[in-house]
Design brief:
mainly alpha; elongated
Length: 114
């Protein structure tokens, strides 16, 4: 295996670890009560709450799968493009979850409904 391929493999695994850490931190802050979710978004209930806590769980499972796949796969079956796609989805999901939480707050700020 060439040195460049080894570097990309290590970088991809570390990136998966970083994304996993961000999602764990996000869930820890939200579930611990440090962030008053219902003060920020009073309408956060039902399917919004399911998406809010469900997306991070799905994303963490995908990141663990990707890191294990990269670690165990041989050079022929590595598919680094799939790793980049999974991390792109991770960032998009983080933006979606933040939008679900902060959407009504941004609306109040924009329209001046304090």
């Amino acid at each position: 295996m060439s040195t460049l391929i080894k570097f990309f493999k290590i970088a991809a695994i570390l990136s998966d670890g970083l994304h996993f850490f961000v999602w764990i931190l996000w869930l820890a802050v939200c579930a611990s009560g440090l962030l008053k979710l219902h003060d920020i978004n009073p309408e956060l209930a039902g399917w919004h709450l399911g998406v809010f806590y469900g997306l991070p769980a799905v994303m963490m499972a995908l990141l663990v799968y990707d890191a294990l796949r990269l670690w165990l796969a041989d050079e022929k079956h590595r598919m680094l493009w799939l790793s980049m796609l999974i991390r792109t989805f991770s960032v998009i999901m983080l933006i979606v979850v933040a939008g679900i939480l902060l959407g009504p707050a941004f609306r109040r700020i924009y329209y001046g409904d304090f």
